[in-house]
């Protein structure tokens, strides 16, 4: 007889228990990333100051995921909504949560200019190398040769260029003394939690712009199983270098 | 709190764009997000020049998309924020405006119309009427004031903030570059001195109370799962919009009571119509004006009365009948004949209207 678990999973306080089961596809990386983000908010006790904004695409399913004030916006427009909030009420710790399409395609101009202006906010860009919600089309981050619905014979870099490297681009724009720019992966959630803590601290202390690109997985659209999903994200980690690109000295002590 | 600049009635002589900035300060606007586009630039210039005195906020964004969405962010955070734009900027800002419409965000935007479509000309038209009233992928749940001069710009910019915050429908001041760029005297005042109580802004995000202690976290969204779920929301918006229409709608009549020829015009063209009417009446032609001030919602009953009691209509617009289309729907069933004076993207003088009216059947019959 199968037995029901009677021990509730440990949820971070900054995650809302009300929505119940995850709305993301089985195996999706978003749930892990959001839960880790929520733990980082708990760690820093930012529940009252945080405002969470989410984009269109899979990330919009997070609209009621967090137990902090949240706003779901339009595709690509989470960054301006959040800096609209933080400019108006500067002690807000604004978090703009988006996919690679929202950050690097339709909302790229906002990411570029928020970085240039050192907007005091955190941008979390989840890179899973495709547009998930709309059925798996090519994203700016799709790897060379990767099969998607709009590159059924593999991404041809002659026709559509090489994958966009978000963290490298943002790193070239920011104030190196004040901004945090990093790329992490869902394969290391401990590192992800520390990274979120640093990124949130950078904003909470009013220093500057934080950009965290998270390499993530999309088994449904990738059509991968457990083993091949892992293989694929490891391939991604070879292409998209997982490292801190810009890290203010003051944050070295954040563990 | 923004500091007041005008505490007692003061007669000023300045450009319309300056008037708008002064009026926004008088209305207690706390933040402007904006992106340069002609002919609205001096709204931002003036707002920025006044910042040391007003202690308000300003952000120059990367485009009008961003200006629109960051304005929404500021409003959600509880600031009385606004923006201003024109032409192609109005086009791309519709993205944010439709979010304001869906989420009932008290968005205030001043539109200085310029020629269109596309880049076209930079100073004048009435071609953003349809766009401002019905832009976006929605149903036009918006309130639009069309101004005809500097006193209007001052009065309705102030009013637009109260309208937006009272009814939570996006609210527009629709002007044009002629109004924005020309100088004219007007009386600036502190709204409170006129008994106008400015509605305070309240936050949607980071409202009072501790999340998880005093209140739940708010989750604002504009996405729906089911068609019926959306319709239920939109039905309630429509019902509310219709219910408030009688107290929101505004219009102006000039010698319309006994008019044989009723000129229907809005904005600055309505002023040309007034000069034309005086000239025509001196010639024995009984002309009058119906000027909708609110284009959304239109003052339907007064409009129908005026149309019904006249012998012939003249629609005068610096567009190809954008106002007329709004009006036709509302005067369905009436049989008053009409003629048109449409000059797409070009100003209409009193002389143009006199010349046109003199050729109309209704005028010939007067003689």
Condensed summary:
The complex is a heterodimer of chains A (255) and B (367). Chain A has 255 residues and is α/β, with parallel strands linked by helices.
Characterise the protein shown here:
- The complex is a heterodimer of chains A (255) and B (367).
- Chain A has 255 residues and is of the alpha/beta class.
- Chain A has a single domain, classed as Rossmann fold (3-Layer(aba) Sandwich).
- Helices cover 34% and strands 16% of the residues of chain A.
- Chain A has nine helices and nine strands.
- In chain A, the strands form two sheets. A seven-stranded mixed β-sheet of chain A has the order 2-1-3-4-8-7-9, with helices on both faces. A two-stranded antiparallel ribbon of chain A has the order 5-6.
- In chain A, helix 1 packs across helix 7.
- The longest helix of chain A is centred in the last third of the chain and has 16 residues.
- Chain A starts with 29 loop residues before the first helix and ends in a 9-residue tail after the last strand.
- The model of chain A has no long low-confidence stretch (mean pLDDT 96).
- The mean pLDDT of chain B is 97.
- In chain B, strands 3-2-4-5-7-6-13 form a seven-stranded mixed β-sheet, sandwiched between helices.
- Chain B starts with 9 loop residues before the first strand and ends with a helix.
- Chain B is 42% helix and 19% strand.
- In chain B, helix 1 runs parallel beside helix 2.
- Strand 2 of chain A pairs parallel with strand 9 of chain B.
Could you give the topology of this structure?
The complex is a heterodimer of chains A (255) and B (367).
Chain A: H1 30-44, E1 50-54, E2 69-72, H2 78-88, E3 93-99, H3 100-104, H4 108-116, E4 121-127, E5 130-131, E6 137-138, H5 157-160, H6 166-173, E7 180-185, H7 189-204, E8 210-215, H8 219-222, H9 226-239, E9 244-246
Parallel strand pairs in A: 1-2, 1-3, 3-4, 4-8, 7-8
Antiparallel strand pairs in A: 5-6, 7-9
Helix pairs in contact in A: 1-7
Chain B: E1 10-15, H1 16-26, E2 31-34, H2 41-54, E3 57-60, H3 64-76, E4 81-85, H4 87-103, E5 108-113, H5 129-134, E6 143-146, H6 150-167, E7 171-176, H7 177-181, E8 183-188, E9 219-220, H8 227-248, E10 251-254, E11 261-264, H9 268-282, E12 287-292, E13 294-296, H10 300-309, E14 312-317, H11 322-330, E15 338-342, H12 350-358, H13 361-366
């Amino acid at each position: 007889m199968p037995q029901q678990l009677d021990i509730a999973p440990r949820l971070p306080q900054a995650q809302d228990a009300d929505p119940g089961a995850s709305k993301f596809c089985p195996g999706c990386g978003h749930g892990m990333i959001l839960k880790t983000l929520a733990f980082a908010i708990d760690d820093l006790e930012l529940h009252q100051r945080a405002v969470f904004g989410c984009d269109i695409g899979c990330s919009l399913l997070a609209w009621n995921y967090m137990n902090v004030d949240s706003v779901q916006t339009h595709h690509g427009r989470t960054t301006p909504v959040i800096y609209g909030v933080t400019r108006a009420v500067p002690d807000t710790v604004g978090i703009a949560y988006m996919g690679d399409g929202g950050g690097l395609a339709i909302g790229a101009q906002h990411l570029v200019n928020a970085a240039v202006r050192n907007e005091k906010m955190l941008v979390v860009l989840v890179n899973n190398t495709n547009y998930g919600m709309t059925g798996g089309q090519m994203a700016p981050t799709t790897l060379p040769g990767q099969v998607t619905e709009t590159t059924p014979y593999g991404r041809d870099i002659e026709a559509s260029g090489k994958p966009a490297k978000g963290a490298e681009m943002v790193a070239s724009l920011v104030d190196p003394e004040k901004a945090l720019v990093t790329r992490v992966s869902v394969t290391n959630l401990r590192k992800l939690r520390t990274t979120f803590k640093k990124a949130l601290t950078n904003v909470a202390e009013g220093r500057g712009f934080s950009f965290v690109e998270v390499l993530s997985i999309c088994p449904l659209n990738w059509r991968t199983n457990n083993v091949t999903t892992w293989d694929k994200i490891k391939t991604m980690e070879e292409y998209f270098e997982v490292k801190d690109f810009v890290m203010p000295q003051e944050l070295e002590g954040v563990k | 709190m923004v500091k007041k600049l005008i505490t007692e009635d003061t007669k000023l002589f300045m450009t319309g764009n300056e008037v708008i900035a002064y009026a926004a300060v008088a209305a207690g606007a706390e933040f402007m997000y904006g992106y340069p586009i002609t002919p609205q630039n001096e709204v931002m210039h003036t707002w920025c020049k006044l910042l040391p005195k007003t202690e308000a906020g300003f952000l120059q964004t990367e485009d009008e998309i961003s200006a629109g969405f960051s304005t929404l962010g500021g409003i959600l955070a509880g600031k009385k924020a606004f923006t201003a734009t024109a032409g192609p900027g109005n086009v791309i800002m519709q993205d944010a405006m439709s979010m304001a419409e869906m989420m009932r965000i008290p968005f205030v935007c001043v539109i200085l119309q310029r020629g269109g479509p596309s880049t076209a000309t930079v100073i004048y038209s009435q071609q953003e009427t349809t766009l401002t009233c019905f832009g976006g992928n929605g149903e036009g749940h918006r309130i639009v004031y069309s101004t005809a001069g500097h006193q209007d710009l001052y009065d309705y910019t102030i009013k637009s903030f109260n309208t937006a915050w009272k009814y939570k429908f996006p609210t527009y001041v629709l002007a044009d570059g002629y109004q924005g760029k020309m100088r004219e005297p007007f009386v600036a005042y502190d709204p409170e001195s006129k008994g106008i109580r400015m509605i305070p802004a309240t936050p949607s995000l980071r409202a009072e109370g501790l999340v998880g202690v005093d209140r739940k976290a708010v989750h604002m969204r504009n996405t729906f799962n089911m068609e019926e779920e959306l319709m239920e929301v939109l039905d309630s918006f429509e019902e509310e919009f219709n219910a408030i229409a009688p107290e929101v709608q505004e219009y102006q009549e000039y010698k319309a009571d006994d008019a044989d020829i009723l000129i229907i015009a809005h904005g600055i063209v309505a002023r040309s119509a007034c000069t034309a009417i005086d000239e025509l009446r001196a010639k024995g032609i009984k002309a009058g004006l119906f000027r909708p001030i609110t284009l959304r919602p239109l003052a339907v009953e007064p409009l129908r009365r005026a149309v019904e009691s006249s012998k012939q209509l003249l629609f005068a617009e610096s567009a190809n009948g954008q106002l007329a289309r709004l009006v036709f729907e509302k005067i369905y069933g009436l049989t008053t004949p009409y003629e048109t004076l449409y000059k797409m993207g070009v100003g209409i003088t009193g002389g143009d209207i006199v010349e046109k009216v003199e050729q109309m059947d209704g005028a010939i019959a007067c003689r």
